User: What shape does this take?
Amino acid sequence: MYHFYVDDYRFQKLIKNPEDLLNTGCRYATEINPTVSLFHPVALVLESIFWKRWVNRAWQQMGIMTSVDINIPTQFEPYCFLGVPREWFSFSTRGYSDRLDNLHAEFAMCQRFSLAPKITFMVFGGGQAAKQLCDKFAEDGWVYVPDFMEINRGRIDSNRLTKVVDRVIIKKSTKVTTNG
Assistant: This one.
């Protein structure tokens, strides 16, 4: 499984060559997450959303199961789900230990958008505080996924991580589109 809550330069090549991810044997990925800040003009935000959805769609056509990234400043919420079918049920975001309230807001945003009976809300990283929050709301679909630093420091067994991810892998055939 791959996530892209990293510096943008690390995934820029995938915009030109989305098939490079397939060549790794990847079965599941979050959308790429281009950096969008409070100070970006809407035009750049829309461009970022287009590219993440375009790459996501390409991966789906290659058989890679995906999750829609919703890690975006709240003032851009009206654009967050462009190109995403209302039936979509798998969402992901980056956890930040000092911004746990954002996770509640993002989960609520997904619930307002999705027509699915239950959504999966994956939180990548954020440390022990984010993990405890996800555990508290696990019955509502919250899933904590440790970031690579936790795994590299030996805090998380990578085999356990694979089991966590396999538990939430998307089995539905709904596709993300690029035509909003």
Notes: The chain has one domain: 2-168. The first strand starts at residue 2 and ends at 4. Residues 2-168 form one domain. Strands lie at 2-4, 28-32, 65-69, 90-94, 120-124, 142-145.
